[in-house]
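Contributing new records

If you add data, match the layout below exactly. Sequence lines come first and carry their own label; structure lines follow with theirs. Keep one chain per record. Anything else will be rejected by the validation script.
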Amino acid sequence: MEERLVLFLSKGERELFVRKGDTLQLDQSVETASVHRVFAGTHQACPFLTEAGRKGLAFAADPCAWFRETLVFIGAGDSSGARSGERTAWANTVRCRKELARYLAFLDTGIRELVAGQAGEDRACLAQACRHGRESGRGELCARHRDALGNEMLLDLTRESSGTQRLLDVLQILVQPRLDSSRSHVYVLDEIDRSLHPNLLCQLVTEFLLQSSAASRTQLVATAQSTVLMEEGLVRRDEVWLADKGHAGSVLCSVSDFRLPAGRTCHDLQRLARWYREGRLGGVPRLVRPLLPLYRKPEK
């Protein structure tokens, strides 16, 4: 395992420690006998920074607090089998769930309200609980729908479509900062475009950018397979990086480093997106042979 902790200063940077396998190089400001003892007891598969934070070493306090309180990771795994309470564990207040339901209605999911209870539970009981700002406490989170005849029904979130379930994950980047603007949030979102229509994806990123400011201290780092965010101009060139797979592993390449044959810089994101799909920027699958045509002429 390799890891390092770098302190960025106004006039440069300083490496507090560099770990490569079983060796550890320390800066003079953090080199003590206790640090070496903690490293000697660190398992080779465990990050040294994590172990240093557990042992209460001073230099690890702030980085570990940032990972614990600021960083939010939203994975790309299919959570269709997860219970609705597990999926929306971050929406742990009635106010938060009302804000989440407001976004779900705005994004045309058909959900009118989110309530805690069992599908098929008495509607009047649930409505009364929500009006008084409390949960019914008798089941998982359910979505309230209305059919073509105007009849309301409750549907467990696990019965919703994959796109709606993905929205429940992604909407965390919009709801949390609105309700808790005093805290900084850094969201790392894997495959932000999974199961989402391109229009929905653009709307989500647009809403995030509109409510973000220097005061909000909120950042989004996301991976995607689609180039729609580039084509719509929702990201800058210097914000786009490509993961190009090689024999020794994947290498990150910045789109802003790409140059035209004459050495000129291309500022047209739509053109860059087209060149990326054509494989001119790297980061695309290297097929052994062209895919067979979908429709082949019958052989005589």
